[in-house]
């Protein structure tokens, strides 16, 4: 197996695939990068058993300048191989697998010999049928991930909550995540869906996928089987295992009415809570207090730390209506929620100071909504 390739272009693909490669694992070969060379191009594969990523580098891509001398396959220690390639002196390097899978990298006057492993010992990736394929714009899928994955649980005591629940049917795609303290729900309108799919994708998988989709301007193909989901885009395939079990019914958690509503810019509220959290983080309770007085059209945000001091700020609001309210909440949950809205006006809808409240864009409640459980305080 021997080829020459542009180093910078190669590293772009390598960096994507390496997202799936663990530094330590019980299956030692999974710490390696699999390289499989044919006359059509070079395929890179990385896996940690939960997610697997394949990228194909075609000979036809002029930027890669891939020159194939002899085909074959090998597995190399991903961490060491990547560090070597980053430091090679020339714009191109030559990759030559010799006896016993010893691999020689040459670039300019530099030469490295790396011990390789038999690619036949690398686990095979799952096969997912070409049927059951959906297409979603990469920008939209990237936003959906960012808007829901923030609410997944990091507690392994309830593994099913560490993922995002995807329900796909004739009404479109509904994505929901909750850690029992907060909830994020995003709906997409999709056309020509013939089947029904109910799956839970690990939040960690979606975080890595979201990073890869940033700035991508094309459709993403989604294929599903019993325990795997495959996202395909460009020359890359991203596999993730699915979580086993039934996701809890969250449909009844979101209140349908409100006694008090507040409308303001998400960015303004985020900045104010960020300031207030300087005090709340210095306190054991880590809560921020919001007092709403519709009669006077005043919304006041405050926070106290017995050891540090206090802060109080009147918010710049668009509208405030309903009953008076005095409510406390975790500022970190609120900051996560507000970042997901971006630069838009939002509505906060409250029932009582002890019941979960909702946040949604002022112009579109149907497609995106978040829910946060308040914190009980004793004044």
TrEMBL record:
Pfam families: DNA_pol3_beta, DNA_pol3_beta_2, DNA_pol3_beta_3
Gene Ontology molecular functions: DNA-directed DNA polymerase activity
Keyword Secreted applies: no
Keywords on record: Cytoplasm, DNA replication, DNA-binding, DNA-directed DNA polymerase, Nucleotidyltransferase, Transferase
Domain DNA polymerase III beta sliding clamp C-terminal: 252-374
Domain of life the protein comes from: Bacteria
Intracellular or extracellular location(s): Cytoplasm
Domain DNA polymerase III beta sliding clamp central intervals: 136-249
InterPro entries the UniProt entry points to: DNA_clamp_sf, DNA_polIII_beta, DNA_polIII_beta_C, DNA_polIII_beta_cen, DNA_polIII_beta_N
Domain DNA polymerase III beta sliding clamp N-terminal: 1-126
UniProt main location, coarse: cytoplasm
UniProt KW Oxidoreductase keyword: no
PANTHER family: BETA SLIDING CLAMP, DNA POLYMERASE III SUBUNIT BETA
Assembly and oligomerization: Forms a ring-shaped head-to-tail homodimer around DNA.
Protein function: Confers DNA tethering and processivity to DNA polymerases and other proteins. Acts as a clamp, forming a ring around DNA (a reaction catalyzed by the clamp-loading complex) which diffuses in an ATP-independent manner freely and bidirectionally along dsDNA. Initially characterized for its ability to contact the catalytic subunit of DNA polymerase III (Pol III), a complex, multichain enzyme responsible for most of the replicative synthesis in bacteria; Pol III exhibits 3'-5' exonuclease proofreading activity.
Similarity comment: family membership: Belongs to the beta sliding clamp family.
Name listed for the protein in its UniProt record: Beta sliding clamp
